[in-house]
Structure formats: C-alpha cells, structure tokens
Amino acid sequence: MRRAFSYLVGGLFVALAAQGLGCGGGGTSARLMHGPAVSAPRAFGGLVYTVSLPKDNYSRGEAVPVTFSVLNTGVSPVILDFPPCRDFGVQVNHDGQPVWAGPSRGCGGDDHLVGIDPGATKSYTITWSQTDSQGKPVQAGSYSLFGWLTTSLGSDPFQGTDQTSKDRSSNPVFITITP
Fold first, then answer.
1. Together in a domain, 40 and 26
2. pLDDT tens-digit profile of 48-64?
3. What residue numbers bound the domain in which 29 lies?
C-alpha cells in the first residue's frame, strides 16, 4: 500500500511517499518526490504576479515549460498597453547572472492592448530549452527564473531604471538541473 503526504514548507510544496513492504510486513520506505515549482506571489497595483513550472527538478537537456501569470485582484478591469509581439518576458539566472531571456524581441507588429477583468488571470507560457543566450547547452546546477510584463510603462525590469517595470515582475522560482 502506498501513502502520499503533501506539505507546504516555507512556501515550497513538498511531497513524501511511503510504500509498504512485503505481505503485511509493516515496513516502509520513504523517498522525496519533487512537486511543482511556484514563486511566491508578488502584488503591485491590484495585480499579482507568479511564475510556475510543472516540477522543480529537470534532467539536463529536458524542456522546461515556464508559465508567467498575472491575476487582477482589483475591482475594475486592467488594460495593459504592450509593444509589438511581446506581452511578457522570462529570464533565467545561474549564480546570480543572466543566462537566457525570452521570448525573442520584436516582430514588426503594432502596439496592442490586453484587458484583464477583476478576478481573472492572464497566463503566458514559454519553453526554455536549457540553452544560454548563444544557444549553447547550460550546465547542471541551480537556476532561478522570473517573469515580467513588457507594458508601455516600462520594458525589461533589469535593463533600465524604470521602477514601474520592476514593479510588474514576479518573485523568482528556483529549479535544479541534474546531470
């Protein structure tokens, strides 16, 4: 018989599984199971920003799907003005240094508006292929990821001094890439 227990520890989801051994032997073995990786919510101006991944541990070379979500906790709709073809960005850091950012910039389109109704969430998903900005495979280790909105109020939060842009970013989420 298998039993699973889930706990929220320091804002992280931890799952523990226990497996009974033998015919009524009563022995158990336990192993740590990796769960989803979700950043602590970050609120600013009636919007809450999070980054999530299906799990917190990836094998080297495995695709890493990243979802950046924006929840409108206010009582009025929010209208966001975005530059051409880019509503959001995601950055991956290793040892405190940027490794990769996406999606790629620009496409020749026009600015556009996106509305988020009260209580609604707008989510964006991108897949990181575990390569750096030059397309080379990254090494095994610990990585942090965060996302941000690229509204006309500011672009990338760490490529300028616009505080409004920094306010429209998520807290980081942490993952491990194993060899």
1. no
2. 999 999 999 999 999 99
3. 1-33
